[in-house]
Every structure is written in structure tokens, then in C-alpha cells.
Design brief:
With 342 residues, this protein is α+β, with helices and mostly antiparallel strands. It is built from 12 helices and 8 strands. It folds into 2 domains: 121 residues, OB fold (Dihydrolipoamide Acetyltransferase, E2P), CATH 2.40.50.90; 152 residues. The strands form 2 sheets. A 5-stranded mixed β-barrel has the order 1-2-3-6-5. Strands 4-8 form a two-stranded antiparallel ribbon.
Length: 342
């Protein structure tokens, strides 16, 4: 190989090496590794103690909604809406706090992340008022962690003891020998459910016909008879509304049977939930004196329960399916009591 060729090759190799060095010099060096601590050693502390002001919407005897917050009253447990005194507790709390401006101070969060708070209206603790009426009991979970909460627990204990001594509400004596409902016979078990309801549906139809006849003859009756006719018309209309609500509640109770009971209602079922509105009752709540006393009393209890269940159904994603189904089942039982006594 001659001299000029060797020189040319050397020049090419030298240029290639220089280009590689320049290209490498344009790449930023990797940053040094930074040690990361164990995140489990410093957990985040929960934010608590916030205070909420706003208009209250009562859900049941120990639960209400203020704005977007679902709040459970601290330190008490009221009967469930589907149990014996559940509607009474809700009615009392609704009369006390429903539509009122309340101040709720957060104390804790339950296992579902729901706020547990002390709620007051103009300084009056609503939980204490429920305890005084025997419509709730003290919810004991151990010693209170602060002196203020120990003082509050002592006051709650005093209210409960006083209601217990006066035999109010849940402390009222009950008949321990209540008869056990008879078991259905094999023939009754074989009868389809819709056939069992046929007499009831027939009664509602007859009452509707009676209402139409009374309306047609209304101009020909005396004032006293006219008042009785109004009572019959009102009763027939309310019973029809109760029957419609009952059928809807039973349908939703049956339709949620296959869902996971420990979890909230899944999103695919949310659009299927909802009760008919109590339009007739809302327009005639001040005319219940036209009805027999027992029917009027049961209607008030039924519609109080309806209102509570309807509130639950507005936010089914915040409650367990089991609780929702229990409330629906209690509503159907309450409706049956109204329809049977009529």
C-alpha cells in the first residue's frame, strides 16, 4: 500500500472518532440516585374536626344530610327505619331538625368513611333530645379519648337513664308473649303471590267505585254526610297510593336479591331505584282527621317510613345493599298493616 492511501485511511478513522466524541458530549449525564425512605413509616394523618353549617335533610333517626355530606349523629343509635320505633325516631328528628340550619362538628369517621358528628340547632344537641325522648340509646364504643367527650358521654348516659326510668320509647314495656304468626299451609304455599293479593286488589277497586259514586252524589247530601263522604274518598285515594308504593318497594326488594349485600348498590342498578312520590298524602296531610284514628295513625307511620326510604334511595351508593333491602322490606310490611286495618 502506498503512502498517500495510508494517510487517507488514517484521516477517515480520526474524523469518525472525533464525531463520536462530539455526539457523546451532547448527551446530559444521568443524575445520581437519590435514596427513598419507607413510605409505611410515615402514614398520613386523617383530617378531622371540621365543622359544617347548613340546612338539614333527615334520613332516619340518627342520620341526616347537610349539603353533600351524609352525617351520622355521634354517641347514639336510633332504631332502624324498618324496625318498630324507626319511623317514630325519624319523625321526631325531622320535626326537630328537618329544614333547620344545623351546625355539625366532626368527631370521627366510621368504617365506610361516613362523617360522625355532634349536631346542634341554636346550641341544642339533637342527639341529646332523641335520648331524652327514649327514641335512641347511647352507642358505647369504649372510653372517650378527651375530657370534653367524657363529659358528653356522661350527659348522654344521664338522658338515657332518665328515659329508661320513665319507660319512654324503646324503654317502654313490651308484651313478651306476643303470638307467633301461623306458618302457611302447603296449599297456601302453592298459591301464586298475585292470587294472594287478589282480595286486596279487589278491595281497592271497590273502594274506588264507592269513591266515584260518592262524588256523583255529593251535591245531594247534608253537610255531615258530606264530611263522611269526603273521608271515604280520601281513604280510597290514600289506600291506592299506599298500594302503588308497596308494589314498587316489593319489586325493588326482589330485584336486589342477587346483589352483594355487604356492598353499596352497583352503578348498573342505580337507575332502577326509586319510589313513587307521596303526592296524595302531601296534599291532604292536614285532612287526616276525616279518617278513623287507627288508619290515620298507621298512615302517618307509613309515610314517615316512605320518606326515610326515599331519602336512602336518592343516594344508594352511600349505604350497603343489605340495609337498603331491609328498609324496602320494612316499607312493604308497613303498607300491609295500613291496607289490612282499612
Amino acid at each position: 500500500m502506498n503512502g498517500p492511501s495510508i494517510c487517507a485511511i488514517a484521516i477517515v478513522v480520526l474524523c469518525t472518532s472525533s464525531a463520536g466524541v462530539v455526539a457523546q458530549s451532547n448527551v446530559a449525564p444521568a443524575p445520581p440516585a437519590v435514596p427513598v425512605g419507607d413510605v409505611a413509616t410515615a402514614p398520613m394523618t386523617r383530617v378531622a374536626g371540621q365543622t359544617i353549617h347548613g340546612m338539614a335533610t333527615v334520613i332516619d333517626g340518627d342520620e341526616l344530610r347537610v349539603g353533600d355530606s351524609l352525617i351520622r349523629l355521634f354517641g347514639i343509635a336510633a332504631p332502624d327505619i324498618s324496625s318498630n320505633l324507626g319511623p317514630d325516631a325519624r319523625l321526631y328528628l325531622d320535626a326537630l331538625a328537618g329544614g333547620q340550619r344545623v351546625t355539625c362538628t366532626e368527631v370521627d369517621r366510621n368504617a365506610h368513611g361516613q362523617m360522625v358528628a355532634i349536631c346542634a340547632i341554636d346550641g341544642t344537641d339533637v342527639a341529646s333530645e332523641l335520648l331524652a325522648q327514649g327514641l335512641a340509646s347511647v352507642y358505647r364504643v369504649g372510653a372517650a379519648p378527651t375530657a370534653a367527650e367524657r363529659e358528653l358521654a356522661a350527659r348522654y348516659d344521664t338522658e338515657e337513664a332518665d328515659a329508661r326510668a320513665r319507660k319512654l320509647g324503646v324503654w317502654a314495656p313490651r308484651d313478651a308473649t306476643a303470638p307467633t304468626p301461623p306458618q302457611p299451609t302447603p296449599l297456601q304455599s302453592a298459591v301464586p303471590k298475585w292470587i294472594e293479593q287478589a282480595p286486596l286488589l279487589g278491595l281497592i277497586a271497590v273502594l274506588g267505585l264507592i269513591a266515584l259514586v260518592l262524588l256523583a252524589r255529593r251535591r245531594d247530601v247534608t253537610p255531615d254526610v258530606e264530611g263522611a263522604a269526603d273521608g271515604h274518598v280520601l281513604a280510597a285515594t290514600l289506600l291506592a297510593e299506599v298500594a302503588a308504593i308497596r308494589d314498587s318497594a316489593q319489586e325493588q326488594y326482589d330485584g336486589t336479591r342477587s346483589l352483594v349485600q355487604d356492598l353499596p348498590i352497583p352503578g348498573s342498578h342505580l337507575g332502577l331505584l326509586g319510589l313513587p312520590r307521596a303526592t296524595v298524602y302531601g296534599a291532604n296531610a292536614d285532612r287526616l282527621d276525616l279518617l278513623p284514628g287507627e288508619i290515620a295513625t298507621r298512615l302517618v307511620r307509613f309515610y314517615a317510613m316512605h320518606d326515610g326510604v326515599a331519602q336512602l334511595l336518592q343516594h344508594p351508593e352511600t349505604v350497603r345493599c343489605e340495609l337498603l333491602r331491609s328498609s324496602l322490606h320494612g316499607l312493604t310490611r308497613s303498607a300491609d298493616e295500613v291496607l289490612q286495618v282499612s
